[in-house]
Amino acid sequence: MFVFAIIVILSYLVGSIPNSIIISKAAKGIDIREHGSGNAGGTNVMRVLGWKHGLLVIILDSLKGVIAVVFVARLFYLAPMPFTNISPFDDFTFVQIIAGLTAVVGHIWTIFAGFKGGKGIATALGMLIILITVDMLIAVGVFVLVVSISRYVSLGSIISAIAVPSTLYIREHVFGVHINGYDTLFPFLIALSILVIFTHRKNLIRLLNGSESKLSFKKKLSRS
Fold it and tell me: How many Cα neighbours within 13 Å face the side chain of 177?
């Protein structure tokens, strides 16, 4: 149980690294949460500081999910599983899911920035690209398509979050692709999608009333 607890704690701490805040302060001496949309995420950094800084934040935030799933989860091999794994996954994959989800939680509620972090999209992307590569590549394609047409990153994030479990379901039940651990993965992805939509609830309201900001590559150091 001690090793499992360490995995959870380390994954949370990795997820909690506030890359957007660190980079915005290093680049311009500002707290990104006081500018743009007020969100500590790559999209807001892109909106305020430009695409280069924003892309760097997105990459680093995605790596947090990868690190939790690929590296932190490997501590599992130091001790036996502390409880019976009733999922269809092997023990290591199950631990990877726990580690990745904990990193996402850390990103959203970061201990290093007053529990006010980003929305978890990039960190979840890093985690899921390792666990369900095909479905995530499709979701990324959906995201790029939606954002290219609408210029709303939040809309792309919400629709791509819905696309992940939808793609998994279609592959399993329509195309007859056997997906290992489907019965566990599907409800897990549903829950994760709900979490992503929940973190975008304010964006949803702005989308509905037409006040959501569209993606722009221009730098704008102001709070909207």
Answer: 11
Rounded to whole angstroms, the Cα distance separating 124 from 194 reads: 13
Coil, strand or helix at 36: strand
pTM for the model: 0.79
In tens, the pLDDT along 17-39 reads 999 999 999 999 999 999 988 88
Q: Which residues of 76-90 are buried (b: 16+ CB within 10 A; e: fewer)?
A: beeeeeeeeeeeebe
Q: What one-character DSSP code corresponds to residue 71?
A: T
What Cα–Cα distance (Å) separates residue 189 from each residue in 105, 161, 167, 168, 183? 14, 9, 11, 9, 11
pLDDT tens track for 28-70: 999 999 998 888 999 899 989 998 999 999 999 999 999 999 9
Count the alpha carbons within 13 Å of 41 in the hemisphere toward its beta carbon.
Answer: 21
Closest CA to 61 of 21, 4, 6: 21
